[in-house]
Amino acid sequence: VAIAGPQTGIYPRSLPGGWNLLGKTSLSLFNPSPPIAAVAGPSLLTPGDRVRFIPATTLDPIDPKPGWRNEGDGVEVLEAGLLTTVQDGGRHELRRVAVPWTGFADAASARVANLCVGNTDHAAAIEICGPGLKLRFLKSTFVALAGANVSAQLERADLEGNAVAIPGRVAVRVRPSNVLTVTGLDAGTRGYLAIAGLHPPELLGSASVDLGSGFLRPLASGDRLDIGVFDSDRARREPLAPVRQRESVRVILGPQTHHFDAAGIASFLDTSWQVGLDSDRVGARLDGARVAHSGAKEIISDGMVPGCVQIPPDGRPIVMLSDCPTTGGYPKIACVVSDDLGLVAQAIPGRTEIRFVSVSVDTL
Description:
This protein is mostly beta strands.
């Protein structure tokens, strides 16, 4: 239990923080697992509730976290690769109880992969962050790759074991015993593998893995995911066009531009920013000129969504991405247009440079 200025909060798990710690509770304030979440909602407290703290000399034991298991019969993970996760359209309508959206970091690329195999736009797909993923298929289906350039091959035991390269943005048929191996990733940081009929476990209405919240987990060797019913006639036999790339990332200034003077805003728009090595799915931290505040460097925490650009006290912008929290305490100088957020998510840390251009709502 911690306090910062006029605000009091309870940390959901052990993690770094800058608030003053006043005490500790073992009361479970959030339970995402059914049937509790399905009946009463996942959160014990909701906005508007009034709370009193009562001192205690002893605490009940803290219930252990559940172990998320993947035990389907459609595709088996032989090797998990580098931080490979299942993602989908995300967890919406739960931000009021502090649940992040999560979901696809690059939604446009994931939609292309899903469209190739006939899935819906928001259907679950596998987000690939590097080489090493190896899957064995236990059922016939279709797969498609999109996003960053993914080098992958398919070993077909049904065709004398010959391995063939998998092209991007087109449906490829796979059969039982076929093995798909990802050998490389370039021109971006995230690739998407869509599988027709993929049906992974869900939590709070989504299959998306949320590392920060501890919802579900990355794929591990030995996992098995279900493949359900799909329509093979919807699989695209001709490659789709790649996602259109823009030279600049469009932003709408605000909502806290009054914390910056004209020089600070100009610095934000005129700098060619390099994505920092400490970036992740929560946010892309940018290296370049420091953006100076003209007002308070911190604010009372208020609402935040993916695309918000926070300026912390050190002046180094952070573009919030899919796993960002629901509130933030730093002034937000701008918000990235949703259709351009994938450009930031695909930026290669330490290499890619991006520039922002200010637009108005009327021009979108």
